[in-house]
Amino acid sequence: MAAEKKTDQGKRRLDQDVERVLIDEASLQARIVEMGAEITAEYADRDLLLVAVLKGSVLFLADLMRRIAIPHEIDFMATSSYGTGVTSSGVVRILKDLNNPIEGRHVLIVEDIIDSGNTLAYLMGLLEARNPASLQIVTLLDKPDRREVDIHVAWTGFSIPNEFVIGYGLDYNERYRNLPYIGILKPSVYAELDAGYATE
Ligand code: PRP
To answer: Is 47 a residue of the active site?
Structure first.
């Protein structure tokens, strides 16, 4: 009982940091059902491998794969940019590579959000060189205004404006990933955390 109460309080605190909900839980789930059906049809006769890019995509992957009605496998990659300037250079560091080869496999990369496009451009090049039978992208969110490099995206859940979004896998300072919706963080939260760092 006490543990339940503590969890509830934690949830309320997260909600209080949200300026507004951009995409609510029902809308997210409805769109994921649609995309799952389309992916099911597209890969009906193919050996599908979903490659999720950690960490932001974990909630999307978990819901999407339950809406894909054909047998498939999953694997994971983890990437990181080299510091703050790297988004413009497009250089991406691989923190975790795939567990298995993808030669001859039909690979679908699962992302939570495309911003500059640099992460996916780099990953596409890396994975293409391993000779998959096909290589496509599904992303839950896209910020087209921020794009720096051209990439072809087969499925996009939602195109969104250039706002700092959190929730449903997306973080600010590693928090807020567990919100079940996509929200916009209150600017006061950034200010508070930035001030905290400045004094550390
Ligand atoms: C986010 C997102 C993409 C990348 C998109 O990951 O999941 O991988 O940034 O940005 P880009 O299009 O400008 O390259 P992030 O580095 O925040 O890591 P996380 O998923 O672990 O939070």
So the answer is: no
- Reading the block at residue 96, the tokens are 């975790």
Phi then psi for residue 90, to 5 deg, are 80, 10
171 lines ligand 1 (CB under 6 A): yes
User: What is the phi/psi pair of residue 152, to 5°?
Assistant: -90, 125
Start-to-end CA span in the chain (Å): 36
Distance 76 CA to ligand 1 centre (A): 14
Tens digit of pLDDT for each residue in 139-188? 999 999 999 999 999 999 999 999 999 999 999 999 999 999 999 999 88
pLDDT at 86 over 90: no
CA distance 58 to 76: 9
CB-CB contact of 110 with 52 (8 Å) = yes
Q: Give the type of residue at 188.
A: S
The single residue of 112, 115, 171, 194 carrying the catalytic annotation is 115
The pTM of this model reads: 0.89
Residue 7's φ and ψ, nearest 5 degrees, are: -60, -45
Query: Does residue 90 line the site of ligand 1, with CB under 6 A?
Result: no
